[in-house]
Every structure is written in C-alpha cells, then in structure tokens.
C-alpha cells in the first residue's frame, strides 16, 4: 500500500512493484483505462532484495545512439518512420531485460533536425496497449504535442509534425500517454532530439563526431534481471549513460560538446568531473548568453545542459571520471589519441531575447493530498488532473509571470515542466536564479519551501497544452494541469 511515510521519504512514489493492483488504479479525476498500466511481458518480476547488482565498472563502452536516417529529405522537410516496440536489451552484463523502445532500441535513436526545416515522423505502435510521443521542449501545434489524450492505439500509426521554428537546442522525445507515461518512459521510450541551428556555425563549437548526446537515468532490477517499476526511487541504484551502467567513452585529446539529458523519472543529478569545472554553453532551450564555468552540474528530471570538455590538456592514457553525489562514479572518459581541433568556445554565445512586459501573474502550487485510504493524489492548485478541465486560459502573444511553489512538508521534491514554450527564471526564493536556472528553460526543480518566479511569452500556436511535475510518477497520480491558448 502506498502510504504517506513512503511518499515523503522518497520524495515520490515509494511502494509496490510491477503488477501490484492497488497502484494501477487512476487517481480521482483521471479517466478509467481499460488497458493495464504495464505491458504483460513485465508482469512476472520478483521483488528486488535491495542489493545493488554486481557490475564491473569500465568494461563496456558507452554507445552513442545512432542518428535516425530519413526516408525522404528535401530542403524544406525530412520524413522519418519509427516503431514503438516491446524488445529486450543487455543492460546488465549477460542478461537480456524486457524493455520498450522507439525503433526497438533502448535508448531510442537520435533525431537531428534543422531550424527552419520541418520534421515529419510516422510512429507505428507495435505494443499491445496505447502509447504516444511528446517532443519535450518542442514548439509544436497541440495535435502534435503528445497530449495525454492523443494516443496511438495498438497496431495503428500516427504522424507527428515538428516545424522546428525554434533556435538550436537539445530536446528529447518520450512517451506521454495518459496513465502510462511513467512506466513507458522508464521502460525505455525516450531518445534525444537535436535541433541544429545554422547560426551556430559562426561560433565554431565542436560538431560531428565530437558532438555527443548523453542520456543519464537510473534504474532498478529484480533478482531475475527484470526492470522494477513503481518501487522506492531510492532503490534505483544503477545509473545508466546511454543505456549502459558505468561505461567508458574513448575520446581524442581535443574539445567535445556533450548534450546531457536527465531522462530519469525522478532523480536529481549532482554531477562533478574529477575536480575539473564544466564549461556550460547551453540549457533546455538552447545556447546561453555566455559561457559559464561550474564545479557542479545540477540536473533534475528532464532538464538538459550542453557542456564542452577540452581533453587537450590531458596526456594520452588519462582517465577522467564523471561522478554523481549519490550514485558515485557513472561514466569514465579515456583519452586515447591526438586529434586536430579548430573548434573553440567563445565567451559570448547568443544574446537572450528581451523579456516583454508581463501583463498577467499566476501561481502554481504542487503538492500531495492524502485521503482516508492513505493513497495520495498529486495535485496542482488543489486539483487532480482532468483532461476535460482547462485550468488557465491564456491569450496568444501574452507574456505572463508564474510563481511556482510547493506546499508539501519541507524537503519534499518536485519539478515543473511547461509544454509549448520555454520560459526565463526571474527569481528563486526572492533572490537571483541559480546557475542551473540560467538561459531558456522548460523544466526546473522545486523543493517544498522554495518559490521560483518564471516568465513566458505564449506566441505561436493556440490550443490545449499541459504543465506538470516532471517526476513522472507524480504526474501519473494527477500532478498535472491544462492551459488553453486562445486567439
């Protein structure tokens, strides 16, 4: 049974494993679902004893997800086809774990788009239950946003159109199907989506083989090597880099651009690089105004950060380890060769757009409501998500200021994600934004007791979009709301 103590201790959903019936009921206000939350292939998992699986570090290379090739490519658009599959993956050495995957891959293929050129992707659902796709951080029409209502039924296909009118940025795509978003994304339905902007060419940042997406996440296994879903997040002790635990990545002694994506359901990474500061150049919505040096990189679930690491200062044979404050060592960079390098990291990158005058102030409060049966609902402003209810009506073109907070007991963690647009963080706790708040954002962490003031301009599309906690088990139990952009 999901109880108050467990939820507060974990900062999230903290009881049950695959197939526990009481965890499968939708929260009040959710529509009833005739399909199970988890695919049948995952119903036989045994309870994990709590012992971390034996993993010998640095024995496998970190894979770079392949770039998806278009079926058709023209100066105006690229057309792709991608399946949604039930498959297996060797995550733990020598074991094949049942997973889900876009294109049958765990992690999904990287899609590289270009600003000003449309992307059309036909997704075919080969699962035995509905699924869908959300381009996280994308500025897209509502019918292509992966709204929880818009499902791809088993055996059916759906075309998604991404106009790519925004500046270059590191985005990612993942499942957002109603009631199953947490399980589907956790089991593997996620991948990187990179918008490349020709205007960045003049900056001469690392490109090609030296521009590498790294999707970081955590995971839990049972005693048979199957993935455990909906247990205490603290038991997700295995951290993966592009789907592999504690891999190494061979690099040349030159500069690399790494696009970090926190694809975990509800982990906040605190990353350090062997005493060397990170050179941070980008955030959720693209390049920062200027390069920043940070000792620790903080990424909550769904946040992204582009960094540059210059390995030229290290002798051949040097090994540099990326660590997390809780998980410890998660990825090792091995300097193995020399390489020419004409790239650079300019101090000034791209000026951020001026912030228009804000005409509307709103407040968003994320917290739990505990009912007599001790099973919490996740709520925003006291309401469980209802797809038929519009919580905020917003005029297209309006600039608004939102105050994000949580009324939960001190220490409980959430985060906040807004669809359709990026925003700017104006204040955190009445003071200056944190270094991790800089740039154009669509996701920010929020701990109970904090307040974060953000500003967004709702240009472009009209229609209904959601905003929610991106700890996906929290949105699953109702911590999501809906805004409608009107002419």
From TrEMBL:
Residues in coiled coil: none
Sample GO molecular function, one term: copper ion binding
Source organism, top-level taxon: Bacteria
EC number, UniProt record: 1.16.3.4
Plastocyanin-like domain boundaries: 84-199, 253-313, 364-485
Catalytic activity line of the entry: 4 Cu(+) + O2 + 4 H(+) = 4 Cu(2+) + 2 H2O
Main enzyme class: oxidoreductase
PROSITE patterns: MULTICOPPER_OXIDASE2 (PS00080), TAT (PS51318)
InterPro entries: Cu-oxidase-like_N, Cu-oxidase_2nd, Cu-oxidase_C, Cu-oxidase_fam, Cu_oxidase_Cu_BS, Cupredoxin, TAT_signal
Keyword annotations: Metal-binding, Oxidoreductase
SUPFAM superfamilies from the UniProt entry: Cupredoxins
Subunit relationships: Monomer.
Membership in a protein family: Belongs to the multicopper oxidase family.
Protein name as annotated: Multicopper oxidase CueO
Species of provenance: Lentzea guizhouensis
